[in-house]
Amino acid sequence: MGRTIIIIFLCTVVEGEIGKHSFISIKKTWLEAQSYCRLYYTDLSFVSSQSDQDMVVQAAGGKDPTGWIGLYRDPDNTTAWMWSGGGIITYQNWDSGEPNNFFGKESCVTIVFDGKWNDATETRSFPFYSAKVKLGLS
Fold first, then answer.
1. Residue 46 domain flag
2. InterPro entries recorded for this chain (predicted)?
3. Residue 112 domain boundaries
4. Within 10 A of 132 (CB to CB), how many other CB atoms are there?
5. DSSP structural state of residue 56
6. Cα distance between residue 18 and residue 129, in whole Å
7. Is residue 5 part of a domain?
8. Which residues pair with 68 in a beta bridge?
9. Phi/psi at 117 (5° precision)
10. How far apart are CA 134 and CA 66, in angstroms?
11. Kind and range of the H or E element at 52?
12. What separation in angstroms does the CA of 70 have from each of 25, 83, 96, 113, 136?
């Protein structure tokens, strides 16, 4: 007599959403800011739309919004940009003339006073934006 084996696959969908962007006024280099965000939040903030951009800038609470976000230049392709948490850039909000990779040393990105983006040297110290991502099962 033969045996019938039934295999049941359970599929779970994991959904993620940005729960909150926080503006951290402590000045750190990009790598220090990334480490801080990964320790206390999820990662440096990422921006995939104008509404994301607005939420990030609002996190500064009316202060000068200049600060690191999670965007950095791909070391294997200097014309490509990637997010700290993974993924390629799909939305851009560069300031006029940016990114310019001044002296070939600007590999990370800040939001500047008008909410636009500027590439900057990763060893400079700026405040930064952290994102807290909420994951849920559905």
1. yes
2. C-type_lectin-like, C-type_lectin-like/link_sf, CTDL_fold
3. 14-137
4. 15
5. H
6. 13
7. no
8. 110, 128
9. -105, 145
10. 25
11. helix 50-58
12. 16, 5, 20, 17, 23
What CATH number is given to the structural domain containing 21? 3.10.100.10
Residue 106 lies in a domain: yes
Q: How many domains does the chain have?
A: 1
> Is 23:115 a contact under the CB 8 Å cutoff?
no
On whether residue 1 sits in a domain, the answer given is no
pLDDT at 3: 56
Give the CA angle between residues 126, 31, 73 to the nearest 5°: 95
Query: Phi/psi at 38 (nearest 5 deg)?
Result: -70, -25
Scan for tokens 């729960």, then name that residue: 19
Residue 106: DSSP 8-state: -
Mean pLDDT by 10-residue block, N- to C-terminus, for the chain (138 residues)? 44 46 98 98 96 95 96 93 94 97 96 96 98 73
Phi and psi dihedrals of 122, rounded to 5?
-65, -20
Rounded Cα–Cα distance for residues 117 and 112 (Å): 6
The size of the chain, in residues, is 138
**Is residue 111 a contact partner of residue 57, using CB atoms and an 8 Å limit?**
yes
In this structure, what token pair is assigned to residue 119? 């590439």
A 10 A CB-CB count for 81 gives 20
